[in-house]
Amino acid sequence: MSCITIFSGDFCHGSSVVKEVLDRTGYKLITDNTLINEACKLSGMNPAKIESVFSAKTSIFNKFTHEKEHATAYLRLAMANMLSEHKQLFSGYMGHLVPRDISHILNVCLVADIDYRLKVANEEQGLETKEAAKMINQLDSERARWVHSLHNEEDPWSPSLYDMVIPMNKTTVKEAAVLIVEYLSKDILKPTESCQRRVADFLLSAQVEVSLAREGHSVQVMANQGNILLTINKHVLMLSRLKEELQAITTQIPGVQSVECRIGKGFHKSDIYRKFDFDIPSKVLLVDDEREFVHTLSERLALRDMGSAVAEDGESALKLIAEDQPEVIVLDLKMPGIDGIEVLRRVKASHPEVEVIVLTGHGSEADRKTCMDLGAMAYMHKPVDIDKLSRILEEANRKVHEAKQQ
C-alpha cells in the first residue's frame, strides 16, 4: 500500500485534514516528534539538537561542527527505516526528506492565501491581524529555509515538490481528505519492484551519510543499487586524500559495491571543506570589546583548526550563549554595559557545563579570586600566549566532552 506525506502551512487546517484522512484510511500517523525520537535513539543526540534542524536559524558554530548536517543525516536514516512499512501518513516537515523518485508515496501540500490564513488565525487563536501576519511570516520563513536546504527551492509551496497542492481557502477539510483518498487509488502510487529498490537505495544512502557524519564529514550521498556517489560541495585542499578517506569509510558499509567521489556545484564557493575533528574545540565564544584584538584572536585560533565565534559586549554574548550554546568561552573582564564578571556569574548559573577562561588586560588579584570562585576554569592575562591558550582550550574541550559521556 501507498504512504502519504502532508506538508501544511499554519492556519490552513492541516491537522483537521490529517485527522480526516486517518479516519477514512486507517493509516498510522507519524509526526515530526516521532521521527525526532527515533533519530535520538539512533544517534544519542539531544532531542533539542535534532529538532533545531527544522528551525530557520543555523548556529553560528555550525560551519565548524556540522551539527545541523549531522542531525539531518540521522533524521534521514530514521525516515528510511520507517519506509519499510506501508499505510503510513507522515505529517510535518519530514516528508521533504523522502527522495521524489520513490513513487508509491503521495506528497501533499496544503496552502491558502494570506487573507484566509489571517482570518483562521483570528478565529482559532484570537490573533489580531498584525500579530498573526508576523507569526505566519516567521513560520513560513522556517519552512522555506528547510525546503531550500533540501531541494534548493526558494518557494516551499512550489507545485514541483508535490503530487497535490490543495488550496484550503477554496476547499473544505472534507473535500481535501476525499481528494487525497481518491488519489491513493491511482495505479501510479502502487508499490512496484522498482519502487522498492529506490526505498532500499534511500536506506543505504542514509546509512552511508550517517557513517560519514560519525567521522566528521558532511557530503551529499546518493545510492543506486549499491553504487554510491559522494558529492563534495566545497573547495577542497588535497582532494585525493579526502577521496581516499571517504571511500575507505563508505566501502565498509554492508551493501556498498562501489564508491565514486566528485566535486559538486559548490566548488566555486570560497569556503574550504573542513572535516569536523571531535578532539579540537569548535564551539568557542570569544567575548571582548577590543574589536581588532578579538577578531585577530579568532583568526589565530582558526589557523589551529579551532572554530570560534565573536561577541563584542556582554549583552551580545549572553544572547549568543542562550541561542547557540557554546561549549567554551574566552571572556574579557572590562567591557561597557554588562562586564565580564557578571557574564561569568550568569553563565555559570544558567549553563554550569560551559567552561569559561578569563582573559583580561586589567584584572586584579581580587578579580582573579572572584572569577575562580564563580567557576572559571582559568584566569589569564593579555598579551596572550596563543600556544598556552590553545592548550587550555583543548583541556576545556576534553572536560566538556568527558562530562557529556557521564
From TrEMBL:
Question: Which keywords does this Swiss-Prot/TrEMBL entry list?
Answer: Phosphoprotein, Two-component regulatory system
> Where is the PTM 4-aspartylphosphate found along the chain?
D332
Note the InterPro entries from the entry.
Answer: Bact_response_regulator, CheY-like_superfamily, P-loop_NTPase, Sig_transdc_resp-reg_receiver
Q: Which Gene3D superfamilies match?
A: 3.40.50.2300, P-loop containing nucleotide triphosphate hydrolases
UniProt entry tagged with the keyword S-adenosyl-L-methionine:
no
Q: Which domain of life is it from?
A: Bacteria
Please state every residue range assigned to the domain named Response regulatory.
283-397
Q: Which SMART domains match?
A: REC
What Gene Ontology biological process does one annotation of this record name?
phosphorelay signal transduction system
Q: Which PANTHER family match?
A: PROTEIN PILG, STRESS RESPONSE REGULATOR PROTEIN 1
Q: Under which name does UniProt file this protein?
A: Response regulator
Q: Which organism is it from?
A: Candidatus Desulfatifera sulfidica
